[in-house]
Design a protein that fits this description.
single chain, 269 residues, alpha+beta, Creatine Amidinohydrolase, four-stranded antiparallel sheet, 16 strands
């Protein structure tokens, strides 16, 4: 689940992150708990991915995740978080994030972003994928490919001595080089005992800016990429975020820890 940007930036150029938030550094034992939660999240996403097909409802996808998370001894991170009514977010086509599962049936050619989290012994992990529904257009597939690769590029900057702005810049530079745009009103976040912790992790920024990355820093990095303009709005339900221009949007996310030698992705199967 994304965090809302505190900056309210309404301009297209990168911004320098000047604030120095207090970070909760994670111990090896805490990261182990997050790793356990992360594996449950990863398996849940894979089960949901396998269930995606034309005709399935987003509520049915939510039930798949709910059943597995409960059986794995974890607690869903999103359910009842700030009043959110489901285990996962299912955002279809021009829905960017926070789509509420319900009676909507997926159809051939849709793309659906699945975002979910789980906690184990009080420690959270959070991840997201965007899945094609049957055969999709070449343009939609390219959006998925660019968004997924931008996450890989951002994670590649997670190393001791680096800066948060290095991660943000890597995502933005790759996306914009491919003619797409990163969402600015919603961002990634620190994660641990709380689902959303400091720092905010924008998908735009400048190298060498923001907080210094050290072993024990754990971030949920989550590019949200639009085919068209970056501007978005929240629908009347108070949750679902959509592109203003109606263009498709994709979302990929991993929970990543900085280690002594680089980084570890905690939300892998």
């Amino acid at each position: 689940m994304t965090a809302k940007s505190r900056g309210g930036h309404q301009k297209s150029e990168p911004v320098i992150i000047r604030r120095r938030p207090v970070l909760e550094m994670k111990t090896a034992d805490e990261i182990a708990k997050m790793r356990r939660a992360g594996k449950v999240v990863a398996t849940s996403l894979e089960l949901v991915r396998q269930a995606v097909r034309p005709g399935v409802t987003t509520a049915e996808l939510d039930a798949v995740a709910a059943k597995y998370i409960a059986g794995a001894g974890c607690i869903p991170s999103f359910l009842n978080y700030c009043g959110y009514p489901a285990v996962l977010c299912a955002s279809v086509n021009n829905e960017v994030v926070h789509g509420i599962p319900g009676s909507r049936r997926l159809v051939e050619g849709d793309i659906v972003s699945i975002d979910l989290g789980a906690s184990f012994e009080g420690y959270h992990a959070d991840s997201a994928i965007t899945v094609p529904v049957g055969a999709i257009s070449r343009q939609a597939q390219r959006l998925l490919d660019v968004t997924r690769e931008s996450l890989v590029r951002g994670m590649g900057e997670m190393r001791p001595g680096g800066y948060l702005g290095d991660v943000s810049y890597a995502v933005q530079a790759y996306v914009e080089r491919n003619g797409m745009s990163v969402v600015r009103d919603f961002v990634g976040h620190g994660i641990g005992r709380s689902l959303h912790e400091e720092p905010a992790v924008p998908n735009y920024g400048l190298k060498g800016t923001g907080v210094r990355l050290e072993p024990g820093v754990v971030l949920a990095i989550e590019p949200m990429v639009n085919q068209g303009d970056w501007q978005v709005q929240v629908q009347e339900n108070g949750w679902t975020v959509v592109t203003i221009d109606g263009s498709l949007s994709a979302h990929f996310e991993h929970t990543v820890a900085v280690t002594e030698n680089g980084h570890e992705v905690l939300t892998l199967p």
